[in-house]
Amino acid sequence: MLPSLPLLLALPFLMAVAVAAFPRSSRSTAAWLAALAPLGGLAILGWLTPAIMDGQVVRSLMPWLPQIGLDFALRLDGLAWMFAGMVLGIGALVVLYARYYLSSQDNAHRFYCYLLLFMGAMLGMVLSGNLLLLMVFWEMTSISSFLLIGFWSHRKDAREGARMALVITGGGGLALLGGVLLIGRIVGSFDLDVVLAAGEQIRASALYPYALFLVLAGIFTKSAQFPFHFWLPHAMAAPTPVSAYLHSATMVKAGVFLLARLHPALAGSDLFFYTVSGIGALTLLIGAWNAIFQHDLKGLLAYSTISHLGLITLLFGLSTPMAVVAGVFHILNHATFKASLFMAAGIIDHETGTRDMRKLGGLRRLMPFTSALAIIASLAMAGIPLLNGFLSKEMLFAEALTAGGPGTMRTAVSIAALLAGVFGVAYSLRFVHDTFFGPGPHGLDRVPHEPPRWMKVPVETLVVICVAVGIAPALTVAPVLHAAAGSILGSAMPEYSLSVWHGFNLPLAMSAIGVVGGVALYFGLRKLINLHGVQNTATGRNVFHAQLDTISALAMRLTNGIANGSLQRMLLGLVLVAITVAAAPYIANPASPNWTRPQPIPLLGWALWLVMMACAVATLRVYKQRLLAVLLVGGVGLMVSLTFVFLSAPDLALTQLLVEMVTLVLMLLGMNYLPAQSGPERPRWRKRRDAVIAILAGSGLGALAYSAMTLPPNTMAGEMLARALPEAYGQNVVNVILVDFRGFDTFGEITVFGIAALVVHALLRRTRMAPEQIMPGPPIKLPVPADLAQIMFPLTLTVSIFLFLRGHNAPGGGFIAGLVLAVPLLIQYVIQGTASVESRFGFDYIRCIGMGLLIALLSGSASMLFGVPFLTSGHLDLQLPLIGDVPLASAIGFDIGVYLVVFGGAMLMLSMMATVKPSRTRSARKGEIDLQRRSARTGEMH
Asked: For residues 629 and 632, what is the distance between their CA atoms, to the nearest angstrom?
């Protein structure tokens, strides 16, 4: 049973890759591939259902980073099972709905990729059995929702809504991370089972208030609670399938899921009671009141979602067992009727071309079937009897009347619940009346009609659920509710009845008052004011942008003060910070270094270092002669490489030599972008200041290097030497460190290297040469060097492969081999030109980087299938005919990724710098120079 949870989690991500792998397939094929993830997930969930109904908790554990308490722990209990069912079930319906909603101009494959990434992130969050792992998926939901909300990136409101959602929920995620770390410090573990069992310990800790407020900040931002609620209406710029999925059943429910998940650990204090119930009640009323005055169908539904999320938060804040049951019940009910309403609004928009209720009306005559479905879902949202919303609203009224705390608190909660009932009926009535009744529609550019048959199926399915739960709750939703609420409450699970009729009682009277009051409020407002003429002010949006503008202005002032285009100033700041950070521990705790007696240096060593020092000093003397200065700097690097040879470090020597060769070419190419003349001489005092700083930095780095080289052998280096062969199956400890012991660091480094190469590509692909930089006449042909370069390439390729294959047991490896392959190609670029080289080889360096990162990730992740941590090495001895014994380590797969990224990244950067095109302007083509268009700061031509 254990492998089922990883498979359940992996399905959306695998299908996202499958959809992306076939970008030219039809929209129907993409939809079917996307649907396989939720349908397959539901099958796995169904297989696990008997165990969940028996009260079991299904677990799967794979060590990931046990040193910091992070394991890839998956945990499926009743609550996670219910949420996973919502994520997968409504996700399947949204995939079907999107197939018919998206236009032919929309990139359906990209949409389904984003949707599946979000689905996988939500599943990972609800299945996480470790708080740190939960945080990983929590942030993934923020990123993937940003992509979904901003899917229509050509629209300003979509970009703005996506940015607002990311900033608010991302900031809340940082606060939540702080709260999670504090909980881990209090409990001593991030394991969810341990945390949930340590409620008394957490509440008794002095850190509890800080942990609680940080966790609640993450919850409130994600679930759009006051005062962070304003981002949700602006997220309605997303396509309607996104709104139906994210803003009814998944993303906005992530916060209340975490509130329910951590309820046993955090609830039970007055601080929790007053904070959570107070914020929930405020959000409940603010959202409901604002919903009445919205003109956009999705805007009304967005504010009603805010209100219902406040209702759920209020119930969890009350913290009584029945309030928790009611909160879980309303999570289910709200997901069904709100998803159906969003889809109905999308159908109306799809068929009429507008969501503005001021232009709609009378659609029951033109779209009778859609109107009937939307009206039933609206009545469920209003809490009308025989529909699911009525049952959870009755529970709210009952819990409000018995709320704990002082009498004033009970009265306040009861009034808030009653007002919310009135407001809920009012905005539901406006949704129905202004859309489907009355005169209209007005000013449409098309004649509305019913949508395609299969586009209505998701709405029909959800509406049937609303009716079935409302009529027969004990037969439909009772087992689900019992399993989910029982996983939160445990032995405190109360006895309750899900009957439709409980007799005449006070909650029923409050329901009746809510219905009558809501009808009276809506029609009263129509009499008193012109609802269609109300101008809504986006206060939250204005405050958000004012704060962003303030922060941006401060950042700009700071940036202009530090990074004003002067490379010297930036380097000065970097070196000063490095000196300060490095010297601080020694200043705080002065201690003389315990250096051993230096060993005698042979004459060759002195000669190497004298040449190196001479090159360094000469560079300072001839820095105005750029080409000579670059060659002298290369000489310093060459002497460093020979020093490594002298100190018996062949791997480092080879790496340094190759890096110097590539860097030399990079610097020569970079000189093309420098001004024709150097700037004015710097004052003498600045030269002296820089000399002092350089001497301090160099002396400190030299002392640090000497201390490291004279450490006793019984250090980490000795341990790695001892463990390299028996544990990583490699005799070359340098390469073993790179691809095994510190493989995760290497993966991060090649990722950064690949990103840097892509940034260079993005910056330079449209760069044009200034007129004075264009050399007249055709390029000079060099036939003999060109022939030699072509002859050398197969030999160099052979050497590159040889160095790669021997790297685990002798000097070499993916990094060195990638640079060895890059050098002869660079020579051919220089001699023969870009067009000639790329026409013969046709390397796609961007794809090379992507394939390298993917291979490195997959080869590192493969070990997790065997229950061992990421990048754990395996070993295999092959007996091949004629060749004999061939030892293979699994780290070679990761090294292939390093090889491809290093080669692709280096070649992408250097080829882009070498292929800057002439300007497209007529004056540039003629080589004309306009002396009036010279930069005032750098002296360069524009």
From this structure: 5
